[in-house]
Structure prediction request, 537 residues.
Amino acid sequence: MLDIQNLQVVFGTGRLRVDAVKNVSFRVEPGEAYGLVGESGSGKSTVLRAICGLAPITGGRVLVDGTEVTTPRSKAFYRTVQMVFQDPYASLHPRHTVDRTLSEPLAIHGEKDAEARILQALREVGLGPSFRFRYPHQLSGGQRQRIAIARALILRPKVLLLDEPTSALDASVQAEILNLLDDLRRKMGLTYILVSHDLAVVAHLCERLLVMRHGEAVEETTSVALRSGAASNEYTQSLIQASQGFTRHAKQAAEALAG
Amino acid sequence: MTTPLLEVEDLRVRFHLRTGTVEAVRGVTFQLGRERLGIVGESGSGKSQTGRAILGLTPPPGEVTAKRLAFDGIDLLTASKRTLRTLRGGRISMVMQDPKYSLNPVMTIGEQIIEAYQAHAKASRGEARDKALAMLEAVKMRDPARVFSLYPHEVSGGMGQRAMIAMMLVTDPDLLIADEPTSALDVTVSMEVLRILDELVTERGMGLIFISHDLKLVSSFCDRVLVMYAGRVVEELEAKNLREAKHPYTQGLMRCLPTLANDVRPLPTLNRDPAWAQ
Prediction:
């Protein structure tokens, strides 16, 4: 479905040059969920932004369904690939109602039957028609993220790029959104690329994942391997350990693990 | 028995708004000795407002009442502004969430630590400077002299947060309130910051109030945990007994987190019982 070959993203020139992504390659099969994990500055979000045209592709190729993407991206591309952003407080227009937010992609792509599509989109993300004429400030964080997902799904894309979709949410709301994403993928046969710093979230939603650090791919592994603690890379191990919570004697614990 | 470091009884924080009165904290009671106390809750549960009310930092329209709010026997509600000023930053300090917003952007880190120190201790500039450098070393800065002369925008988030901890601990406070000190940081960095905080708190025998939304983190870091829901403490328990939590809200919070250890699908969600907020 998605093929990323030697992707390179560079910002700035000369002294200000930053190599945000260095030679990252991965393939995502149709219907698969693929995770990108790393700390801030590892370039995981930049990969997503480069795929959907929000960051420049300096080198390498991005193929969707076997064809290379054009810059600027075509309308057909956005029918196939849509993105959900991290902060639902920032990604919805504060002065547009839910109805207007959802009808905009339909208008851009000349879709008819907007009313029915909007109502259906709201139902799919578990919100009733009563939410249609609300403003973002009248919604909770979880409801806003549902609207953002509805906006991404209303054009019936095949690929959803999820950039930390739950990190701005409370734990209980995170569980609801993760369940929703799981359900939607099964029902609509969607392909996901999920970016997150939370290993547990990635392992929950994705089958395969790529660990990134300083713009480079460190290790590609599966969530099964992650759960069994079979990660070979030292950096991945340290991420796993950090996700288990605080330990007072970290060094001893690490040595014990090493046996 | 000696008097506890901090006594809070029936603490209430109200905000009178155009749309009516919102009670953010509704009758919180606890006592703190020289220990690590965690306050956990979701956004809007009143955990941060509790921390702010102790320091008298409730933002303007807010109104704080309590049957008793005392630090080391000093009543914080009736204390003069002058007394409060010597307590705040001197004997009680607070580490905020995001170093990007809580450090002064136009002052070097060293100057800020010196300023904090000189506000509470009679010390010459030279002494204050030595103290600041020692403190930067205590928070494991690799090159204290260099960090001393850097501006906040020149350091990373983890370094900024360590600089803030240095600034808060330079006056040797008895009580430290840390409001989500690591949620703006990466996991591996936040572990490092926590380890430093843990060492300093243990070494100096301070009391610590650790406010966070992360139940797992708090239970691994603190001795005792208060779980807040809708402005009330719904459960108080020893951190190591978190797994045996009685209240359905705490149990729900524990269960709804995805873990690496077991794969539960779909994740159990929280059914909020209106009775919890009563």
User: Anything to note?
Assistant: Chain A touches chain B through 32 residues (CB under 8 Å). The first helix of chain A runs from residue 44 to 51. The beta strands of chain A are 2-11, 18-28, 33-37, 59-64, 67-68, 81-84, 159-163, 191-196, 208-213, 216-222.
